[in-house]
Amino acid sequence: MKKIILTLAALILFSMINVYAADEQDSVDYPRLFLKANEAYVGSDFKTSVVCYEKIISSGIINGEMFYNLGNSYLKTGEVGRAILNYRKAELLMPRDEDLQANLGYAYELTRDNIECKELVSFIENFCFWYSKLNVYELSYLFLAVNFLFWLLLAVRCFYRNEVLKIVFYITVFLMLVIGPSSGFKIYNHYFVKKGVVTHKEILVRSGRTINGTVLFKLHEGAEFVWLQENEGWVKISLCDGKKGWVQKKVVDCIIL
Amino acid sequence: MIKNIYHKYYNLKTFYVLAVLATLLLPCSLFAESVSVTAMVDKNDITLEDYILLRISVKGTRDNPELPEMPDFRVQSRGSSSQVSIVNGQMTSSIEYNYLLHPEKTGSYTIGPFYLKDRGDRIKSNKIRINIQEASAAEEASKDVFVVAEVDNDRPHIYQQIIYTFKFCRAVKIANASLTETPSFDGFIKEDLGKEKEYQKVINGRQFVVTEIKYALFPTKTGVFKITPSTLQCSVVVSKKRRGRSQFNNSFFGDSFFGFSETVPKVLKSGFVTVMVQPLPAVGKPPGFTNLVGNFEMTSSLSSKKVEKGESVTLTLNISGTGNLKNNNQIETGGLQNFKVYDDKPVFEPKIIKGKAGGSLVIKKALVPLVEGKLKIPEISFSFYNPDSGRYEKAVTGPYVMDVIPAKDKEKFAVVEGMKNLAVKQDVKILGKDILPIHTGLNAFSNETHKMFFLISLILLFAPVVLYFTAFLYKISREKKEEGAGLTRQRNAYKLFKKNIYAASKKLKDSNSDFYQFAQKILKDFIADRFNVPGNALTVNEMEAMLLAGEIPVEIVDNMKRIMLFYDSGQFGFKQYSAQEKEEIFDLMKKCVVLVNKKLKR
Q1: Yes or no, beta carbons of B467 and A103 under 8 Å apart
Q2: Average pLDDT, stretch A192-210?
Q3: Each residue of B209-266: pLDDT tens digit?
Q4: Minimum mean pLDDT among B87-101, B274-288, B469-483, B486-500: which range?
Q5: One domain, residues A188 and A210
Q6: Quick check: B395 pLDDT over 80?
Q7: Which of A110, A140, A156 delimits the end of a domain?
């Protein structure tokens, strides 16, 4: 009995220490750090603003505007690759932000590689304007709302039917057919297709996972690719024009929240 | 005859054998003999307009010699030739590389040594000393081909037009002439004066063909300027020297067409042209002088001298002459306070007037009178410096008086010819590029992570499906329930009828009772229960339709109709039936109901 009490007491004490430690970790004044980052940016001290924004993001705050600010800071320090990386992360959360689109466009102008893309995504974007205007969560919730309406109307039709209800039902079916596939494709792209950005000035893409592998082609800072596979510090990448190869993981970064 | 043929054949055979042997032995001999490189020139003393033929002879190897840098010469390759010779049984071979050296400057220069790499060794050639002098005047005079560059005035005022002329004179035939270097004309604005001209001229008693290129130059700074030389490259056609006199040694067969002549390359350079640009005289310089130098005239015209207030007239100024008008086209007009003035874009049309650059400048102004009455457009003038007269002059036009009448009510403004070009829109020029600023709002702290996204999505995806199936199952169960209730009602219909028939019999005997109403009710209830429909409001036609749908024989249906109509007339028809009639109908009803019940049970 005594042992049990002692064990319980030790557990409580240990958990308290943990809580205290966590409190101490949380004691960093992030709003103040945010203001400091903003001031540093305005004062053209972009390296400080990068450090501050990175610290805030590493604390677990996932916010499009924070990524946007970090992207701006990186762009001002001349790191186009990291700027594009953070802009693309911000785009996952706030795709309709005009400032973000303008700055991302500017950053793309600074990249050196011209990669011809014929992706299915760009085809969908041309036909389904909502695909690029809504983030994955918004599009999913929109689909779920239409889905809810569809089943609700189906349920109502079990007991009550009239012409207006019929028209509303058919409109809902149409919306389901339009939003459903695009939503599914967006979820697939978001969760199952990893994308990456080159963060070094110039990298060599090799035929295999070795430094002696044949250099297939070169990529420059800011070039985007699909992150196919990861193995022993090497990443297999694929460009949207079909070129594939292996690069060292330390020279690229993944666009993931 | 046969002997001769044999001799010829024998000689031919000997030649072939020797040729084969030479070919086979040549590589061996090349390796065998010592390697050497020798440089030779055709002359050591030349002028700037001559050239040197440099020959580098390489023996014992087929490698190219290394040509050192020769910044004082322009080097032109003239190909190579190889020779094989057998002297006293000793075979020697050599390759000769030919170059043309065109001197750039006067002075004494050493060219070489030229190096040759042979199996790791560097073999050096001899050096050659070359003296280069300016072409002497006597030589100039006796030259067949020469170029001259000159200006018509080497002491112009600033902005004053001078004519730079480059002349290419030749008394012999030339080929492939091209200007390889033209002056940069630093400190001048250059304008072309038409295409090149070609004419014939006698110089020192010799007839020359002269090609002339002219440029108008406008000095933009004061001081001494040296116009750099122009360089022309050509090939002079000269007759080949032949041994002895020949019937082909005449001017006709000396033509290059017959191959009795050769071309000698020549590089001709004009000298530097020095121009001393002086400032414009300060004495008499009018106020507002806009650096116009030349000889100009100005005329003007007004599109209308009578105009309504608010309408516009076009004032056209036409300035023509020679000088720097193209780059100086702002004419100020003052005294137009009573007008709103819209300036049109000036149009300059270049012209060559008496061999000088000039043109005409048309300036249009749309004038919209702001007040009514007699309005005066004062005289318009501008000042310029006339180098011919050596003083400042003034070009004057106008004045004009305009009659401005009140505007009609129907239209207050009129679009005029001169206004058309006023709103010339320009593309917005991008002067710089930068990114848009950071977002400083504290909503950047709202965490946009969707940790429960999948759970919520799954719930929202399947919850309505569950809802639907729940509703569907409820509907089925309710239908089943309703169906069960209907069956019970159908089964109990006859029982209930029989139960009520007893009460109806009692009412039949009582003449004051509501027999008709009651009897009709129990009949209606039976039918309604049997067909599981609401019975209270059942009409005769509805009953007939239901019975017929239930495949009840027509005679029974007719009887049922008759019974219903009997009860209706008993209740509402105010007809008094006898007790016997009532009993007959009542019995008929019982029989019919039994039959209907039987039929429906089947």
Answers
A1: no
A2: 91
A3: 888 888 888 888 888 888 888 888 788 777 665 544 444 445 444 444 445 567 777 7
A4: B87-101
A5: no
A6: yes
A7: A110
Q: Is B185 helix (H, G, I), strand (E, B) or coil?
A: coil
> Are the Cβ atoms of A155 and B468 closer than 8 angstroms?
yes
Cα gap B361→B327, rounded to integer Å: 11
For residue A76, the model assigns a pLDDT of: 93
Same domain, A75 and A13: yes
Instruction: Report how far residue A199's alpha carbon sits from residue A233's, in angstroms, rounded to the nearest whole number.
Output: 15
Put simply, the answer to whether A99 touches B439 (Cβ < 8 Å) is yes
pLDDT at A251: 93
Q: Does B453 touch chain A (CB under 8 A)?
A: yes
User: What ipTM goes with this model?
Assistant: 0.76
Out of B440, B450, B464, the one facing A148 most closely (by C-beta) is B464
- B448, B456, B482: best to mutate for the A interface, most A CBs within 10 A: B448
Q: Which residues of B touch A65 (CB under 8 A)?
A: 439, 441, 443-444
Which position has the token pair 């008993």?
B570
A13 with A105, same domain: the answer is yes
Please report whether residue A209 resides in a domain: yes
| pLDDT for B543 | 85
Residues A100 and A13 in one domain: yes
Shared domain for A201 and A237, answered yes or no, is yes
Contact residues for B19 (Cβ-Cβ < 8 A; gap 6+) = none
A148–B463 CB contact, under 8 Å: yes
Q: Is B388 on the interface with A (CB under 8 A)?
A: no
Cβ–Cβ gap B445/A72 under 8 Å: no
Q: Indicate the burial class of A117 (C-beta count within 10 angstroms; 0-12, 13-18, 19 or more).
A: exposed
Q: Does the beta carbon of B137 lie under 8 angstroms from any beta carbon of chain A?
A: no
B461 contacts A144? CB cut-off 8 A: yes
Please answer yes or no on whether B444 and A147 come within 8 Å at the CB atom: no
Backbone angles phi, psi at B47, to 5 degrees: -105, 175
Residue in A61, A76, A89, A176 to test binding to B, most B beta-carbons within 10 Å: A61
Q: What is the CATH number of the domain that holds A14?
A: 1.25.40.10
Neighbouring C-beta atoms of residue B319, cutoff 10 Å? 24
Rounded CA separation A194/A255 (Å): 7
Query: Quick check: A253 pLDDT over 50?
Result: yes
* DSSP tag of B1: -
- CB pair distance less than 8 Å for A144 and B446: no
In terms of C-beta density within 10 A (0-12 exposed, 13-18 middle, 19 or more buried), how is residue B108 classed?
exposed
**Kind and range of the H or E run holding B76:** strand B73-87
Q: Based on the domain organization, do A31 and A94 belong to the same domain?
A: yes
Residues A168 and A208 in one domain: no
Query: Chain B: nearest CA to A189, how far in angstroms?
Result: 15
Q: Please give the share of chain B, as a percent, with pLDDT higher than 90.
A: 2
Tens-place pLDDT, residues B32-69:
457 788 888 888 888 777 778 888 888 877 777 887 77
What is the pTM assigned to this prediction?
A: 0.43
Interface of B with A in 469-498 (CB under 8 A): 470-472, 475
Q: Does B575 touch chain A (CB under 8 A)?
A: no
CB contact under 8 A, B445 and A93: no
Quick one: how far is CA A127 from the chain centroid? Answer: 23
Average pLDDT of span A184-211: 90
Query: Is A115 part of any domain?
Result: no
Among A65, A75, A158, whose Cβ lies nearest the Cβ of B472? A158
- Report pLDDT digits (tens) over B172-207: 888 778 777 778 788 888 888 888 888 888 777 778
The answer to whether residue B451 neighbours chain A at the CB level (below 8 Å) is no
Q: Mark yes or no for CB contact A64/B448 under 8 Å.
A: yes
Domain range enclosing A71: 2-110
Three-class SS of B267-326: EEECCCEEEEEECCCCCCCCCCCCCCEEEEEEEEEECCCEEECCCCEEEEEEEEEEECCC
